Amino acid sequence: MAYTYDPQNIFARILRGEIPNKTVVETAHTLVFHDIHPHAPVHVLAIPKGAYVNFDHFAAEASAEEIVDFHRTVAKVIADLGLSGEAGYRGITNAGRAGLQEVPHYHLHILGGRVLGRLVDPA
Ligand code: AMP
Prior knowledge:
3 helices; binds adenosine monophosphate
């Protein structure tokens, strides 16, 4: 699968420092920041710093170091934001047309702080 990455997407611009963000944590390969339109009391976005369009692109082509850094960082954020254990959270990633992905840079939504609705709307 050949993936085409648009370097002008809004998260690429955030990573270049062209647009401000409310950072939760930043590591060598990962940035976690608050979603600008939160859908829950906690709603953050975790993104790799590399140019990956979506989850399958990241999973297929990122280095082991990037993949480990991303997931360890997400785990730390989940704990730091009080979502681990009983409290719980939902991780969502949207891809392409079916997923209604708006920003074509891989991002994992992490939502919590209230009981969330069902997984997807009925068709
Ligand atoms: P998706 O539909 O999965 O592509 O979600 C894109 C998400 O990015 C939405 O939840 C938006 O609210 C969020 N978003 C868009 N622009 C920004 C921004 N400048 N800072 C933080 N979040 C943003």
